[in-house]
């Protein structure tokens, strides 16, 4: 029988077991598909015991990479449970709250029943929308967007995560849930870094920090630890989202800061054009940057099987990178100022303060990037120090609750060939 509108199917006995707790497909008000991702789908259901509308995220596990992502998300959501939340209301941390988790055997609609897969099912409160849909609606029909309030909530969620020793590494509007009354919660921890830095190619391309465009390496000599580096990548992505909030609040035709696609050189060039290089950039650093970009280009060509000859567009990108590195003329200040000027007059002072924060969120050098907690002290937020102290303490307490996850992921990283059944056993052990 179909599993809650997710395009997945359960054996009758498993469907019966799941439907004891949740009203699934075919029942009134249940089974609407909410989204689809790399490893499965999200669909709505109704929790029978409470009548609450919930979201069931079906993570279909077909290989070790998918199993590791599922394990990573499960451990994060279990460890980041808000001690002050009963999972029936929005969290104080700004992180989506896990209500339940279970495993099921599923198969996809196009497969036969014999080709089943294990799936991890994560149950959370069902959101009204995600931030991507909210922003799209604002551009389409002119709906108001509380840019400052949304930016504040996003930065609070990141401050909590970073205090817990977790970097999300895929911050984007699609992964920010919007609940009624305008509450935001960060979701989708399948790429999260819990203190084991393996330089996976993370972050969706439009929100990817320049150091991750270079494959996790920085074009300068200042050293910061791997955990701080991952947290700084989250702050960069948050800066990109803040720009999108400004664009929606202004009703601008422009929607995203970095809409460029293409190879690593084109992505690196776009970031240099917007924010400029780090202070003290010199020509002596360029050969190292070129070498790292070329290595990334070769990696992508090897993965795709494309020809290895550099196209003319890449040559143009490299030439532009040299000029932008040595003669910077950042476009971000003027672009942000134009958005503020286009906004309703009554909103401009707060939006101007938010725009003024962008260069600190989007500093090219991750060592120069403002921390999420520090950004909350600045205008337009001006969070009370006592509130931030409490948020930091809550994050550290959450980090302590799942300190054992660090050793689990360290083991996975050291043995990337970990058999699928070994990871599945870890998952099942955590939910029993």
Main β-sheet: number of strands, strand sense, barrel status? 7 strands, antiparallel
- The residue-averaged pLDDT reads 84
Tally of DSSP β-strands: 10
Q: What is the helix content? A: 40-55%
Portion of residues in beta strands equals 5-15%
Task: Give the topology string: H per helix, E per strand.
Answer: EHEEEEHEEEHHEEHHHHHHHHHHH
Tell the overall outline. globular
Count, helices = 15
CATH homology-level superfamily of the largest domain: Transferase(Phosphotransferase) domain 1
| CATH classification class of the largest domain | Mainly Alpha
Describe the structure.
By secondary structure, the chain is α+β, with helices and mostly antiparallel strands. It has two domains: 8-126 and 403-431, Phosphorylase Kinase, domain 1; 129-395, Transferase(Phosphotransferase), domain 1, CATH 1.10.510.10. Helix content is 45%, strand content 12%. It has helices at residues 12-19, 64-79, 131-141, 147-163, 210-213, 226-250, 264-275, 286-304, 312-326, 332-342, 348-361, 372-375, 385-401, 404-414, 420-431; strands spanning 8-10, 22-23, 33-36, 40-47, 53-61, 98-108, 117-125, 129-130, 176-178, 184-186. Strands 1, 2, 3, 4, 5, 6 and 7 form a seven-stranded antiparallel sheet that branches. It starts with 7 loop residues before the first strand and ends with a helix. The model has no long low-confidence stretch (mean pLDDT 84).
């Amino acid at each position: 029988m179909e599993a809650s509108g997710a395009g997945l199917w359960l054996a009758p006995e498993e469907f019966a077991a799941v439907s004891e707790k949740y009203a699934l497909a075919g029942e009134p008000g249940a089974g609407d598909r909410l989204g689809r991702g790399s490893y499965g789908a999200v669909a709505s259901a109704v929790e029978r015991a409470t009548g609450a509308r919930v979201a069931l995220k079906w993570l279909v596990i077909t290989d070790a990479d998918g199993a590791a992502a599922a394990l990573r998300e499960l451990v994060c959501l279990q460890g980041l449970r808000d001690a002050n939340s009963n999972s029936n209301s929005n969290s104080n941390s700004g992180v989506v709250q896990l209500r339940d988790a279970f495993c099921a055997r599923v198969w996809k609609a196009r497969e036969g029943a014999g080709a089943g897969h294990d799936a991890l099912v994560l149950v959370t409160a069902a959101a009204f929308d995600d931030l991507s849909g909210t922003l799209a609606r604002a551009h389409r029909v002119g709906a108001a967007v509380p840019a400052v309030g949304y930016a504040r909530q996003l930065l609070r969620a990141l401050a909590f995560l970073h205090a817990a020793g977790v970097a999300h590494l895929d911050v984007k509007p699609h992964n920010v849930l919007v609940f009624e009354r305008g509450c935001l919660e960060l979701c989708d921890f399948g790429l999260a870094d819990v203190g084991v830095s393996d330089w996976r190619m993370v972050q969706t391309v439009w929100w990817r920090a320049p150091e991750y465009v270079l494959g996790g390496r920085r074009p300068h000599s200042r050293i910061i630890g791997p955990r701080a580096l991952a947290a700084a990548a989250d702050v960069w992505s948050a800066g990109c989202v803040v720009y999108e909030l400004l664009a929606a609040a202004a009703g601008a035709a422009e929607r995203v800061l970095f809409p460029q696609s293409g190879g690593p050189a084109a992505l690196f060039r776009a970031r240099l054009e917007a924010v400029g290089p780090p202070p003290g950039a010199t020509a002596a650093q360029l050969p190292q940057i070129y070498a790292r970009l070329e290595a990334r280009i070769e990696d992508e060509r090897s993965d795709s099987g494309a020809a290895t000859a550099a196209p003319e567009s890449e040559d143009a990108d490299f030439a532009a990178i040299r000029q932008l590195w040595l003669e910077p003329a950042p476009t971000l200040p003027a672009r942000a100022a134009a958005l503020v000027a286009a906004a309703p007059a009554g909103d401009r002072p707060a939006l101007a303060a938010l725009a003024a924060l962008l260069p600190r969120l989007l500093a090219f050098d991750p060592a120069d990037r403002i921390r999420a907690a520090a950004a909350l002290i600045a205008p337009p937020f001006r969070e009370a120090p006592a509130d931030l102290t409490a948020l930091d303490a809550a994050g550290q307490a959450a980090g302590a609750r799942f300190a054992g996850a660090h050793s689990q992921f360290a083991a996975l990283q050291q043995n990337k060939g970990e058999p699928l059944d070994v990871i599945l056993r870890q998952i099942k052990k955590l939910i029993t």
